[in-house]
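Minutes, project check-in
Item: structure for the 411-residue chain
Input as provided by the requester:
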Amino acid sequence: MEQSDIQKLAETIQGTTGSVNGRRSALREKNEKVMAKRLHENEEVKALKEYMQRKFKLDIFSKEFREKVETMNWRKLERKLAEADSSSSFVQFLRAGIQALTNNMYEVVQTSWEDWATSVSSSRDTELYAPNHGVSFPRQVGEQTPYPQVGVAALDIKLKNYKYGNMYVLTQELLDDDQTGSFARQAGLLGEYMKLLVEVGVYGKLASVANMQYIDFQIPVSETKPSYEANYPWTSSAAPFRGGGFNKPTSYGALNQTNIQNGIIALMNQKNLQGIKMQVNPTRLLISPQNSFDAAVLIHSSYYPSGAAAAGNTGGAFAINPLKSILDITVSRYMANYDGTFLGSSKAWYIVDDTKPWFIAQMREPVAVVQENPQAGQSFDLDVIRFKARSRQNWDFIDPRFAWQGNDGSV
């Protein structure tokens, strides 16, 4: 094994989020741009940013402001603002600080779904999608014979944005006496957990099994199932999709060379609604940490990884590895298991085409922070400051024919 192979193997074993093949995919960069844009384009966030710019000449999303927020003496600032203007300015300043910390953590937390799913900016309650499977295949036309009319096949899909959120309660005493940075860390968790919500939701929808739950977050099965499909999003050749396509074996198998090869071959023979072979190009292997070592050996070994065959047969001693670098590897600790759990030890694995927008993360509002009026409600009664982190989004399949479920974790 060469030094470069050893390095890739080590990166695969150690990596638990994102691409571990040393390649920063164009899809990830595109997704990050979409999310950053949605973070700053939210109407409430934009209004807060404009207020802070107008009132204090501060850009709340600048690196300098975030660094100041993490070490700021908030009680001293409150007294200063009260003397200069009014306490209402402090409320807005505190909210701006929480929003900056939340956005910063949202952007820096590493997640893996960006490597293969497509982030879509949403501006409505429900978005409509119509993936087109094209016209029927051409055929020979005889002399003075009318050309055959062709029909168009497409999917009619809609996806509703759901609301997610939690509440962060900050006591006045912690704000007054915090010497450890606990305030900033806890506020940052609003953004971190909202980002991880997407990771859990995406992998949950990918598995689409009954009773999926992570902590208190319950994830439904795929909501984009066409009315004419009996099995969705995963079906085998025994009960194929309309048109004859299928995206899982009749019997699940462990992650090994033979099963990976079978998955790649099946995807490259995938059929659309009209029975025409699709241009599916398998590019990525999705696994949990449980399979990271096996995947590293299978994908990065220079020589045949499954043991030498007898002389004269494919895979003999010192034969090349036909799987070498054929797929990029993405490892997520949130890979859902067949029983709906997220233990990180799932043996589930998938092969996908990450060049096509077949699975989307629909972003209406990634994360926005709202503060309760400090002169009313529990804020007034209990001397607490309450912040609400809110998000509106959803994730689901557009066309599952671009993915292969080699194992749901049951084998």
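Outcome recorded: Residues 3-126+156-407 form one domain.
No further action items on this chain.
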